[in-house]
Amino acid sequence: GTRVLLASRPTGRPTAENFRIEPMPIPTPAEGQVLLRVLFLSLDPYMRGRMDDRKSYAAPNPLGAVMEGGTVAEVVESRHPDYAAGEVVLSYSGWQTHALSDGKDLRKLDPAAAPLSTALGVLGMPGFTAWSGLRNIGQPKPGETLVVAAASGPVGSAVGQIARIHGARAVGVAGGPEKCRFVRDELGFEACLDHRAPDFAEQLRAACPDGVDVYFENVGGAVWDAVFPLLNTFARVPVCGLVSQYNGATPGNTDRLPGMMREVLSRSLLIRGFIQREFAAQQPEFRTEMAGWIKDGRVRYREDIVDGLEHAPEAFIGLLEGRNFGKLVVRVG
Ligand code: NDP
């Protein structure tokens, strides 16, 4: 087998040297355990935070340990009463070809119900993040305007499409004309703007003539700067992620906080951070609803599948810079 370890902690942008790819022996399951062979590994922006040694909602990835991550895996050997060889499960096996599990972190998947990789994307954690952030915080209403960035990715693409199902106008923000075309023409957003365009803020204003009622915050930075003046009274801002800041924040912003708070008050804004796990009890409802929308063609998704675990580090580094186009997944097995 093969595994990828966290070799050192990055300062700023991660590099290949922060990872170590090495061979590993195939482990043997003890009584009560299963041996898993990883089929797909999910690469997600949150992994950048785990590479740092800093207090956060989750503990840092230990140095010298396997990189953590969500996976789809096949049971190859079982000494657990609830699992049989050949079954496919959602697991948290990390960046490695094989892993042991005691079954507590596993959920069985039906390979006939949906492509297995979707359990890491539209039907998995990112899809649930979109769904739960809107259900509990954003609450788009008919005729309202919603803005979301990283709009071609798994979270943003689901956010805009769900908002449209609820009757809102979805305005996307993405990097480059190809992604913007996809978001408009394939996903059906009313508009999609390139955040790298020099006149991005003016374009956004023109695309939101009635202001912004829901801003689903995925990126922070310059996009937030452009959206903030457009927020309507009673606007809701689910704060989901700040990917533009993950490789190091732009310094010197703190003096704008008092002005921002004045606006939060005068416009009765709701700015509410969340980690999807908070809403975990709603996952069964999400899976039923989302599976129905995919079947009806009301929600579409795009995957960016990279072959081979040895390519995971470069693919992950690219994810933080927008080099992925769709949900980034590594085909491991
Ligand atoms: P994506 O696959 O969309 O990848 C991240 C995207 O961010 C890139 O493709 C890029 O798209 C965009 N991006 C990167 N840098 C910038 C920048 N400086 N300005 C604007 N956009 C940028 O990721 P996900 O859909 O998996 O995740 C989206 C967000 O949701 C992330 O912030 C993530 O951390 C967060 N998240 C939060 C969860 C929670 O529980 N709170 C759970 C899951 C995800 P482009 O080329 O279009 O700019």
TrEMBL record:
Protein name in the entry: NADP-dependent oxidoreductase
Species this chain originates from: Roseomonas elaeocarpi
Highest taxon, organism lineage: Bacteria
InterPro entries to which the protein is assigned, alphabetical: ADH-like_C, ADH_N_2, ER, GroES-like_sf, MDR_fam, NAD(P)-bd_dom_sf
The enzyme's E.C. designation: 1.-.-.-
EC main group: oxidoreductase
Disordered: annotated segments: 1-16
A Pfam family annotated for this UniProt entry: ADH_N_2
Enoyl reductase (ER) domain segment(s): 15-330
Keyword annotations of the record: Oxidoreductase
GO MF, one annotated term: oxidoreductase activity
KW Oxidoreductase (keyword) present: yes
